[in-house]
Design a protein that fits this description.
Helix content is about 5%, strand content about 45%. The chain is mostly beta strands and about 300 residues long. The longest helix has 7 residues. It has a 15-stranded mixed β-sheet that branches. The protein has a 9-stranded mixed β-sheet with strand order 1-7-8-9-6-10-5-4-3.
């Protein structure tokens, strides 16, 4: 995916956003089936690009014209296209953000209102970025990239096969991952080739990616003699090394990929890598707002 950054902390003039929450998922009452008295579901259609990238139409306040937003659980805070910020006449301030271990100067603003189904996000702090490359890649206008800082305001389920997002009561069936409200991301614990790793639950990539700087040694990986651009991970080219067929254990289930990726020297204090939801064949995910838990579903 082009024009995208994996960001877990936005450092504004007033201070920094950080996470100290536990990695384990919250304890929830297991309700595999929807409550028959919960009322009709609130369902909004999705577009799916390249079998993983989700786009939904949302409204900006009272505007009758919907805008396209990428749904990305791996981006926090949400991003608004600089062209839209200019059209709306929104004020911006200088800010710095953490981009996979690097501090980058950027712009920040506040969106007056974004509405998606039952979600109404008011006075939302956002990043401001140029998303023109993403618009060219998808061949549609993109207003922004919506993260869990917005989506977590309601329980929901994303379904890749039905191409829809459904709000309301959800099933707890699946592999749980803890949502950290302050950081705006969900992280799950996995074992890759027997090594423990904290992985960011990410709908914005179709890969399994490790941050090389988070590991003391990498001799347990089986590298391939290839490299490729990581443009799907960030909005600039960065070297990515490929390694072969790692064994991945998630929620006591074994998964296998023909390849995974490594960003040498990159590091982050909150997670050790990116776990693309579609990379392991998950057909959907649910989020329970009361429990602060995401459930990855086959």
């Amino acid at each position: 995916m082009s024009a995208k950054r994996k960001v877990v902390r936005l450092f504004l003039l007033a201070g920094s956003l950080a996470s100290t929450g536990p990695l384990h998922a919250g304890i929830c009452r297991i309700t595999p089936d929807r409550d028959a008295d919960a009322g009709p579901p609130n369902i909004i259609p999705l577009k799916v690009f390249n079998n993983y990238l989700l786009v939904v139409e949302a409204h900006l306040g009272d505007s009758p014209q919907p805008q396209n937003f990428v749904l990305d659980t791996g981006t926090a805070p949400s991003i608004i296209n600089v062209t839209l910020v200019k059209q709306l006449g929104l004020a911006t301030i200088s800010a710095t953000l953490s981009d996979i271990g690097k501090i980058i100067t950027t712009q920040a603003s506040t969106m007056p209102e974004i509405d998606l189904g039952p979600i109404r996000a008011v006075s939302l702090p956002v990043q401001v970025q140029d998303l023109s490359r993403l618009e060219r890649d998808l061949d549609i206008p993109i207003a922004g990239i919506m993260g869990l800082d917005v989506l977590s305001k309601s329980s929901f389920r994303l379904d890749y096969e039905k191409r829809e997002i459904e709000f309301g009561d959800i099933s707890h069936v699946g592999i749980p991952a803890h949502f950290d409200e302050r950081a705006g991301i969900a992280v799950t614990e996995v074992r890759i080739e027997g090594r423990a790793a904290r992985m960011l639950v990410d709908t914005g990539t179709d890969r399994v990616v490790l941050l090389g700087g988070n590991f003391a040694d990498l001799g347990w990986l089986a590298p391939r003699n290839t490299s490729q651009s990581g443009r799907s991970l960030v909005d600039r080219k960065m070297p990515v090394q490929v390694f072969s067929a790692p064994d991945i254990i998630l929620g006591e289930q074994h998964f296998s990929k023909d390849r995974a990726y490594l960003v040498p020297g990159s590091t982050d204090p909150l997670f050790d890598g990116l776990l693309g939801v579609r990379a392991l064949g998950f057909r959907g995910l649910s989020y329970d707002q009361a429990c602060g838990t995401i459930y990855l579903q086959k």
